[in-house]
Amino acid sequence: MGFLEAAAVVYLRTLYYPEGFSFPLKNIPIDIFLVEIEREISTIVMLIFIGIISGKTLLEQFCYFLYSFGIWDIFYYVWLKVILNWPPSPLTWDLLFLVPVPWLAPVLAPFIVALTMIIVASRIIYLREKGIYFKISKLDLALGALTALLIFISFVMDFPRIVNQELPSKYHWEMLVLGEFLSLFVAFRIIFLKQRIEGCFSRHNE
User: Fold this and answer.
1) Where along the chain do its domains lie?
2) Rounded to whole angstroms, how far apart are CA atoms 141 and 190?
3) Residue 148 CB contacts under 8 Å (≥ 6 apart), including other chains
């Protein structure tokens, strides 16, 4: 899937950015733009179904989705580097996504998020296969939603500029760092604190 995503981008860049991708963005026909949005939605749907097929519980399904998303995102950039030798730097700006509005950030930012998703999701999946049960509290859900919101905002804050065919401004790393901190805090609560509680219950029952 990472290769397929990269291949589609190679075609688009060959057509609209033959001199190499850069900001400000160029105008493309509306029908091509709509097809690109539909392609991105289709990719997410495929990743969701990977989670549905692979996991037995809602938590497992979500973790398989996160894990697959992270692998796909990292290998998308790996294949772009192999095919186009792009990006030239981890701090190179990229147009990440178009739904519901354009997302953009230095390449390093989505790489960090993808790596976090892989590590946390794979750990939870591993422990679930070992028979560890996790109880997700309302606080965990609220903090998880706040994490996603912070990272999302960091990616879309500059979209009005690129819509107006301007250059991206400063990326808000502080929002990404805060979102990453919250995600790791939630993961610590779920993986370590609740695993320890489960272990205590198990010893007590013995």
Assistant:
1) 2-205
2) 11
3) 179
By the 8 A CB rule, do 70 and 121 touch?
Answer: yes
Q: How far is CA 165 from the centre of its chain?
A: 25
- State the Cα angle at 132 between 131 and 138, rounded to 5°: 140
- CA angle centred on 62, ends 52 and 95, rounded to 5°: 105
pTM across the whole model: 0.89
Structure token digits, residue 167: 């250059």
Encoded tokens for 185: 């805090």
Q: How many CA atoms lie within 13 A of 14 on its CB side?
A: 9
Residue type (1 letter), 13:
R
DSSP of 123-156: HHHHHHHTT------HHHHHHHHHHHHHHHHHHH
Describe the crossing of helices 58-84 and 30-54 by its angle, rounded to 10 degrees.
130
Retrieve residue 129's tokens: 């296969």
Task: Tell me the C-alpha distance between 68 and 45, whole Å.
Answer: 12
Query: 156, 16 in Cβ contact below 8 A?
Result: no
Q: What is the pLDDT of residues 91-126, one digit of tens each?
A: 999 999 999 999 999 999 999 999 999 999 999 999
Which residue matches tokens 């998703």?
A: 117
The letter for the amino acid at 30 is I
